[in-house]
């Protein structure tokens, strides 16, 4: 964050100061978590679903915070700036801060692939320019403004991920970000318990492209019919990318191996060190943006070379004698379909095993989507499936109906049973893809697999000893 005077912060948010330090000191860092306070920070008291930052104001000030931004009915301490609504003030400050800079801002949204696409765009553009990207999964009403605060006058660009769990959120956050380039990766069912209908999801995703200025442009997944439905909402240039010939940028001659995706665009060959065909869309979006800002294909490829998958998102690992695809960050019908395709495309002498938790937040359509997943795993010719959760029987039952052998299907009510079954099935050279919604905690299987791998030498030693005794 670039230093900003306290008086300028007050002006940006229309706050009322109360006993502030003398001398109009500079603010160099905003913190919303009192556990991470450093001396000189401004603590912004925000209210979340499970906490209220106002409960930690005194603690933050004692730990060395320069001051705190609070709502007056909650606190009347010295070293505070009082505002009517701390979240709205946070957005106002982030917007004012962003407007100080001429950096090219790219907004990325979509049901799936936001983080991977954001990270790949950043990898490509960083080969020629200096820029920032949203850290981790900072894509909500707290994370987006925090992401913008990484900007300073040294940055040429910023890639900001924008998510939503209810109607209107993308529009609100886009008004804070003011992107000149918009990206939509894909649109599918998710958060249906909050959105209530797929039409609401479409309208919410469209809020991004509706707010891109005429002199900007949007890059859209042209293979996704839902994305194409909202393309006309754009008041700027539209670039469609995909594998189908109707797109402006088309990937041809696609080749997929375990940790490399190759393809051709026009006369140029590209490759990405990634696991899964779905990375082609992210790469095409990155290529389209790179070309639009006058990068050469060679510069773009150098940027793609630096891309590295993020843990939890098609992240390839070797654990003991097994290949593990860590896709545990989240799950919905679109991303699960991509995961099944990824597992199908893996080259191995062992089995392909899908370990899946429920896809959550699908509302009244949950059983239907899990039934479709059972069809998907059968078509992908996956060798073994272990399903965990309330919809496990729907997945396994559907897979059985569509021809998968019952002996290749496992239903587990909890992680312990799932791990026991997985340990009985696992053999050297097997590939295991682990996936599920955040609430299913599928990432906890990774350390369990590591522990199981560590036990293999002892198990083999005990087996050999017992064999000698029998002989």
From TrEMBL:
Pathway: Cell wall biogenesis; peptidoglycan biosynthesis. Its EC number is 6.3.2.10. SUPFAM superfamilies: MurD-like peptide ligases, catalytic domain, MurD-like peptide ligases, peptide-binding domain, MurE/MurF N-terminal domain. GO terms for molecular function: ATP binding; UDP-N-acetylmuramoyl-tripeptide-D-alanyl-D-alanine ligase activity; UDP-N-acetylmuramoylalanyl-D-glutamyl-2,6-diaminopimelate-D-alanyl-D-alanine ligase activity. Residues 108-289 form the Mur ligase central domain. Transmembrane segments: none annotated. InterPro entries: Mur-like_cat_sf, Mur_ligase_C, Mur_ligase_C_dom_sf, Mur_ligase_cen, Mur_ligase_N, MurCDEF_CellWall_CoF430Synth, MurE/MurF_N, UDP-N-AcMur_synth. Belongs to the MurCDEF family. MurF subfamily. This is UDP-N-acetylmuramoyl-tripeptide--D-alanyl-D-alanine ligase. The gene is murF.
